[in-house]
Amino acid sequence: MGQEPVGEIHHDRSGIVFRPGLEGVPVTQSAICDIDGLQGSLTYRGYPVEDLAAHSTFLETTYLLIWGDLPSPRQLRDFEAEVQMHRRVSFRVRDMMKCFPATGHPMDALQSSAASLGLFYSRRAIDNPKYVYEAVVRLIAKIPTMVAAFKLIRKGQDPIQPRDDLAYSANFLYMLTEREPDPLAARIFDRCLILHAEHSLNASTFSARVTASTLTDPYAVVASAVGTLAGPLHGGANEDVLAMLEEIGSPERAGEYLDEAIASKRKIMGFGHREYRVKDPRAVILQGLAEELFARFGKDEMYDVARALEHEAAERLGPKGIYPNVDFYSGLVYRKLGIPRDLFTPVFAISRVAGWLAHWREQLGANRIFRPSQIYTGAQARNWIPGEDRPPSAGA
Ligand code: ACO
Q1: Does residue 105 have an active-site annotation?
Q2: Is the pTM of this model over 0.85?
Q3: For residues 341 and 331, what is the distance between their CA atoms, to the nearest angstrom?
Q4: Of 246, 265, 351, 391, which is most buried by a Cβ count within 10 Å?
């Protein structure tokens, strides 16, 4: 349609550079997360993600991301208690979810149910700190409940109510798998949530900031980000990785699969990242978590295929800076934890809601509505043609 190939750099009428996909273009200032894509380092509010994954909990990391500092023990206890109190969702939301098609994707169910929260809680109070705190608590508390609820509702079952004696991650696994999880499994899941909680201005976070910049409510902010996260080039890749590993089938086939995929210009799912030129530091930690889980609960046979693929890809894709990203090992961990494949991305959303909300608050702190420009490539002024005189449109 008159456009140059993606990847080219152009200028608009005023000479401003246009970079497709905004690659390398800063669009905001942020104090939340820092990535060094050459060193493979990732920090949240200055803390290395490795330290947080080793020592923190998801709720403590959420507090850090959203309010800027680690909480005192008292602040953390209060935050945990508030989140625990708000885990339940209204029967109206559950009834609405019962009307969703059972075959629908859980990310679509989550997007709709997250948006529906805006109907229940008053809007336009975003300059009131109490409203902001309560919205944060509600979203962090209710998103897992809604993800677990849809899993049971689509099977025709009633959702399981949250259990107050279980901590955040253990409670989610309980609501999902209908049994109390092993403490090691719950701790590993909590560490996964820490690793996925924030990653600077990725597509869904950018989406969240754009929506936030209109001063709409936080439920709309999160719903728009969930929709963006769902795509296969973003959070949706973790589902495709397992399908790819199963298609490869055995470690011996990894090299051949890569050669075919590269020759036919197919992307290897779970590889490559706009920011990293080395192995994603989260993939390094997730691989360790996968091994911890396998040592305790038995190995997933696809792990050997994944390792062979990573090994073979180092030679073929490494020189281009393409290495495993966060999605490469997460599916193997989630499968071992009993999480169904189409819930991998909703689980990612449970965690990333922390980052989205941190960016929501930051955006409101120095807001200017996002309204970029474009380079118009369409028709020049045309004369109106009455319907009977028009040739058929080539459009549809
Ligand atoms: N497999 C094979 N080649 C790849 C891959 C891959 N996974 N990723 C990038 N490349 C190649 C491209 O073919 C292209 O090669 P060329 O220059 O010879 O044409 C070059 O590397 C640049 O690729 P782009 O797609 O332009 O890089 P971009 O920065 O836009 O893409 C992305 C990043 C979307 C993550 C990409 O690597 C990809 O599609 N990966 C697979 C999907 C995936 O795993 N997504 C999850 C990302 S992590 C997350 O969102 C949570």
Answers
A1: no
A2: yes
A3: 8
A4: 351
